[in-house]
Write a structure and sequence with these properties.
three-stranded antiparallel beta sheet, four-stranded mixed beta sheet, 154 residues
Length: 154
């Protein structure tokens, strides 16, 4: 899945957001995630597509891919998630860094649909071949516009 999160004032993707996948009861989905320290049980999260990639060669069980270090060229600077869609999935977006990313944004929760999920990897598409490789039909990132928090002073 690819997710573009932007604000009313700026169409660029907002950086430094915490985007968590929840189940139908709004509880974080935990998953064995590969990190530089090996597999760890953690909540399933989107990550912002990096500017460069450290991935090269074939991914296998002995050398698994660290998702946060892999760049999908077509995802631009949007957020990505390599995990299959499942019915009842929810996505929670939180601004955790205050004004550092350009504003204080309200948290939001939304439900993606199956049409929002696209194959991102070579086994299901030719996107890894670059722009000449083609696109998955009807690809478009999900788009969510965050609202700024309002503060009232009495």
């Amino acid at each position: 899945m690819v997710l573009k999160v932007y604000s009313k004032k700026n169409a660029d993707c907002i950086p430094s957001l915490k985007i968590t996948v929840l189940d139908s009861l709004n509880q974080p989905i935990t998953f064995n995630i590969y990190t530089s320290n090996g597999y760890q049980l953690d909540s399933l999260k989107f990550w912002q597509n990096p500017k460069t990639t450290t991935h090269s060669g074939i991914v296998d069980n002995n050398h698994p891919l660290i998702p946060e270090q892999f760049r999908f060229w077509f995802a631009e600077d949007n957020y990505t998630l390599v995990h299959p869609y499942f019915k009842g999935m929810q996505i929670r977006i939180e601004d955790i860094d205050g004004k550092e990313n350009g504003g204080l944004f309200k948290s939001t929760l939304f439900t993606p649909s199956k049409k929002d999920a696209h194959p991102l990897c070579t086994s299901h598409s030719s996107w890894d071949e670059g722009p000449e490789g083609g696109f998955v039909q009807d690809y478009e990132p999900m788009q969510v516009r965050l609202k700024r928090k309002r503060f009232f002073f009495f």
